[in-house]
Amino acid sequence: MSASDEISSYLLGELDPDAAASFERRMAGDAALREEVEGLRPVVERLSELPDEVWEGPEPPPLELPGNAGAAPAPRRRWRLPTLTLRPVAAVAASVLLLAVGAGIGALVAGGGSGDGPPVEESLSLSRVDDGPSGAHGSVLVSAGRTRAEVDVSGLDPSGAGRFYELWLLDEDGKTFALGSFQVAADGSADVEIPIPVQPSRYRYFDVSLQEDDGNPAHSGISVLRGPASS
User: Fold this and answer.
1) Contact in structure between 90 and 44 (CB atoms under 8 Å)
2) What fold characterizes domain 122-228?
3) Where are the chain's structural domains?
């Protein structure tokens, strides 16, 4: 799989959990890769907000071939975003096309017409939980477009060999969503930018866990910091 295919597959949720966790670890240490992902994310998010009917094209006429007179026409194929693979070039082209077809589709893409003011950045505090060191604290600065978060933590134990920290979205019923991994330096601090492919408001908490680099993408159960996912 090429790099561009892997990025679009990640943004569309097509990677299996192991591949997604591996990709997120690479993003944590590769600023150029994060920048490329963030450049494509708004296009994919706008397309994902469109209703199903936008993806329905006109029904094509039946293909006339010798010997198939009277044959039933092929059924209409409905395109739904969860199964539609948009590669980076195609996604950009599709976005331009959608924005050009008129005010109606433009309003759907932009979510306009609500009269709300422009979104603003949101700073959320992270506090120590039971498994965290006594002086651990941090914050999550969510971008205005809710597409990325700047995570700033202090007072944590250094990552060390074979370990890393992971930022999650967490709900009270145990539902989790892994956002990205990062390393903590010897001074116990880290300041990283992590993409957010889902709306944080769907969850209750941001959670930072200490993970073993053993290939298991699940939450380790060792939470060190936690804070609200929205104010």
Assistant:
1) no
2) Immunoglobulin-like (2.60.40)
3) 3-60+78-110, 122-228
